[in-house]
Amino acid sequence: MNYQPHLHDIGFILHDVLKAPAQLQALEPHADCDIGLMRQVLDEAAKFVTQEVAPLQGVGDATGCRFVSGSVIAPPGFRDAYQAFWQAGWPALACAPEDGGQGLPALLEAVLYEMLSAANHGWTMAPGLLHGAYECLKHHGSDELKARYLSKIATGEWLATMCLTEPQAGSDLGLVRTRALPQPDGSFLLSGTKIFISGGEHDLTDNIVHLVLARLPGAPAGPKGLSLFLVPKFYPDDGRSAGPSQARPAPSRGSEGHEVPSVGALGPRSAVHCERIEEKMGLHGSPTCVMRFDDATGWIVGEPGRGLNAMFVMMNAARLHVALQGIGLLDAAWQKADAYARERRQMRAPGPRNSAEAADLIAGHPAIRRILDTQRAWIDGGRVLAYRTGIELDIAKHHPDPARQRSAQRWCSLVTPVLKAALTSQAFHGASDCLQVFGGHGYVKEWSIEQIVRDARVTMIYEGTNEVQAIDLLVRKVLPDGGSALAALLDELGDALDAGNAAHAELLSRFAGLRSLASALAQAAPGNPELPYWVADDYLRALTLALLAWAWGQIEAAMTPLACGEDAGRWTAPASALRHWVLPEFDMRMGIIKERLDTT
Question: If you average pLDDT over every residue of the chain, what do you get?
């Protein structure tokens, strides 16, 4: 029951709903990105995911990573699969050709990582930060750093980490204590401890590039005093001083115990140590490391005191990918539950829906249909929103019209925290609902649905907890301008709707309610600063549901006989579930916010 990419569903949303090829071909760098190219890339991606990555899902969970004398050994097969992955060019999909990349749209990379996360979340954690690290170094790194590290990160030959969190500094990065001491040669010596570092140490690649937040001497307290630094596991063997270091890399042992020779271009090892790996609820195939920097030589990325500005390039890219993890994990859970429901026979379902042959399959029971159709509503609607975000990222970067660029940037700024929070929440709760389809069998390891539930839980926490995403949306992005940016986005979506259509009129009413509440909250917040924080989760959830309704409106508009063929029922069932079981929550969330407003 390994995950299988459903390319027909993905293609329908890309080509028929979003008209992605036409939008991308209007951008000069992607003028050749037609339907044929997109299908070819995704066909090959699906083959790699199915053949190389999905079969390692259970192995990674059962075996986990091993910590041996400061080194981390990945589960069997993980290194070989990763080496095949980067050598086939998959990490470089959306990177610039001059950096060793293929220059393809960010959208295709987004779909690739959705598939990878669905197939094997633990393995996918390894390359998951590559794109963000690449963008961070490309935009903020010095010419020398880019010459030495950028192509290695772009191609995925070397993996990267994001070293932010410390024992006392989780969401509040202003509490970071790691220190960076300037050296006469322009380098810095970093000292401190970082925790929860995904892939901080492993044997998947010969080198690891750490991007580290630290504080310079005399820097002010708080987040404005933070700078960003690059510290590799091994320094390039180019004859230049690397500062205090350990010995040159010795041959390591791979996942199967075979010797992995070191790369000749690598020199001395840095003073970066993995103290331990965490014992976790899930994601056993991904090492979560405690990293210690002992006067490790590194170099600044970007300007002093502007480390968060540089780091947020990584974090925003990571948050979209985490949203896609949510879609992928929910799809993987749904696939298992749907397959099981079509085989499991129990009491006869009520009503005339079932033939005598299938009358006792649990797939025919309303309770089971409700679970499965509801998850499909979230997967399909979430794909529309996430894939559009991928398109908007390319538009923001390449469109010739500055006004269209600003519109794309507005979409990404407002919608990214919504997708990260909502789709990861649904991944966990929806996967738990899918486990329910199995009854007692879901609670045991045999069917592997419980692994998805465990693996999905962390997505609500990392890359900014979902509560932080809600605060980011309402307090930092909606209220400062009185809701005008959000109003502009909703107006843009609403302009294409027909007020004479009942469903469209209902959606326009939801948009109007969100605008009105944003204005009311902006007016009330100065007198009650806590108010937005109390209702931020509710506002994000209400906006999510309105956007989900808009996304399904786009799907239903594309459901022509030509596009759907004989598969129309595949789309009508989740559309019905959306109306009956999902969207009624919108009024509840709005009511909570209004009640809180009325009592202040």
Answer: 91
